Amino acid sequence: MRVGKAVITAAGRTQRNLPMQSLFDQQGAERSVLSLVVREAVRAGINDICIVVWPGDEEPYAKLLSDEAARLTFVSQTEARGYAHAIWCARAFVQDEPFLHFVGDHIYVSPESCGSAQQLVEAAVAEDCAISGVQVTHESLLPRYGTVGGLQIPAKPGLYRVDNVLEKPSPTQAEQYLIVPGLRRAHYLCFYGMHVLTPAIFDILSTMLDRSQNERVSLSAALSQLAQREQYLALIQKGRRFDVGVKYGLFTAQLALALSGQDRDEVLTELIDVLAVRGMFPGQGAGA
Hints:
The chain has ten helices and 13 strands. Helices cover about 35% and strands about 25% of the residues.
């Protein structure tokens, strides 16, 4: 298997401004969220990148990425049919090749120099199959993520054969259908926001979209079908994912980038200064 293309979805009507937000990267340079995602793909050795956008967003996104060392293709999602449909819109770009997929509103910070996407691509190539990045996640966060169940592959720590996938399950559903032996109690394998997928996903999505007519379909449901059709694995990622669309998401993503970069000491000093004066704020003093 060779992975030479990437698809980034950024067309959500209520979230499509998130990829345009600015952050400072580990080198202290100001970049958009979308630029950071594109650079994660480039670090993985992928320069042929498709960005799925809402019609009319092509030009502002292209300006954001004018300095990126990648060949960019923009595809419009002309119907508001959700995340899985956005991936399906990139089928002509992907053709019959495996591809790396990201969501456009997540930031990834990895302790490994190679980056999360490169690790995922290398694992997909080695195992010659589709694979999703996952992270061990407490059940309190299940409403945010798709979640997988399966068994660890012998002699391959952190690698699991996926048997089932559910989108944002309840703790009761997760306990019934998504148990992964070896994990701590009340912890599950939730999606990290990046996948290497095979072209088979488009056949599955096409069937689901035809049956649902104008309704949305779930990528998690499609991936559950993929697991029944061919080998589909999950790899635990050592980095952290930051959804910039949740409350304080942009702030925590920026903090993680800063603390993993060249300005770490300066940022820590500023944080200590802020914490030292918390008693100056109403209701936060020692007697509050």
